[in-house]
Amino acid sequence: MTAASEFDRPDAVAAALERTGYLADPGLASAAFLALRMGRPLFCEGEPGTGKTALAQALAEVLGAPLVRLQCHEGIDAAQALYDWDFPRQLLHLRTMEAAATASGDALDADAVEASLYDRRFLLARPVLEALQTTPSVLLIDEVDRADDEFEAFLLEVLAENSVTIPEIGVVRAETPPLVVLTSNRTREVHDALKRRCLYLWLEHPDLGREVAILKARMPQLSDELAQQVAQAVHRLRGLDLLKPPGVAESLDWAAALELIGARHLDLESATTTLGAVLKYREDADRARDALDALLAS
Predict the structure, then answer these.
(1) Which end of the chain is more exposed for a tag (fewer CB within 10 A), N or C?
(2) What is the DSSP string of 214-259?
(3) Strand 170-173 with 163-166, pairing
């Protein structure tokens, strides 16, 4: 297990990330280095498919720490992020206590019963509490822009204190604060108060050379020619007016699909056959088919 303090400069972080297959440019490596050494959350914003979630996964691998993921969505609340009580087990426990009391002829002590029902063994830790109780850990709060203002306020308290209060138990504080990575696709603006508590990183799609390098790093068996052709075609697809421009994950899927059908290079036939690996909307696929000759031009 690697401690954050072992990284003495950004290029050491970049080298560690590269060993996981994640290629970081200097700006990204510096942001990750500072998040590790300063113990600050890292707020990653950018278009879908630019490697925000993958960065958290790579950092967890680098640190040898479990990745705890909280997927945000509209209507998510603190209970879904923090903890809940295992009601069926509590009910079974209560019935067992009642049966034992009936058999022995003793009366139940209401205070003792209540205390036993809210024991830690009945506590269901959701991602935030799980991350605080796991040392070390990486907490990924994914797509925070899909949550509402009330949930952001809850996150502010957790990120500031690295602790949560459970009324029936008390304060649960992290022995070692988790490395927190928040991601946003910028479907709405996240409040400044949350951003101020974080280091900020804007991620863009990689340039052509870096995307080729990513394809080769993740798929060493891929030929140089096919990696270059896939990366170039994906870059041209991003220049079209698409509903969902492809990200790096789609580039990898496309290369894998081409390999599986035995394609040695990207031509009109192989591209048409495998287009569903890189584009996920009918309108986008139709628009791409109309432009395939230009997309595949050398």
Answers:
(1) C
(2) HHHHH-TTS-HHHHHHHHHHHHHHHTS--SS---HHHHHHHHHHHH
(3) antiparallel
Contacts of 218 (CB under 8 A, 6+ apart): 21, 252
- The type of residue at 266 is L
Q: CB 208: neighbour CB atoms within 10 A?
A: 13
Contacts of 223 (CB under 8 A, 6+ apart): 264
**pTM of the predicted structure, to 2 decimals:** 0.87
Strand, helix or coil for residue 88: helix
Residues 43-72: b if buried by 16+ CB within 10 A, e if exposed: bbbbbbbbbbbbbbbbbbbbbebebbbbeb
Q: Of 177, 198, 257, whose CA–CA distance to 190 is shortest?
A: 198
User: What is the distance between the alpha carbons of residues 197 and 38, in angstroms, rounded to a whole number?
Assistant: 12
Q: Please, how many CA atoms are within 13 Å of residue 84, restricted to the half-sphere of its CB?
A: 11
Question: Is residue 252 predicted with pLDDT exceeding 90?
Answer: yes
pLDDT for 1 beyond 70? no
| Spatial distance between the Cα atoms of 172 and 158, rounded to a whole number of angstroms | 11
- The C-alpha atoms of residue 234 and residue 251 are separated, in whole angstroms, by 7
Chain Cα centroid distance, residue 16:
19
Verify cis geometry, omega within 30 degrees of 0, for the bond prior to 177.
Answer: no
Q: What is the DSSP code string of 184-220?
A: E--SSPPPHHHHHTSEEEEE-PPPHHHHHHHHHHH-T
- Determine the 3-state secondary structure of 283 from DSSP: helix
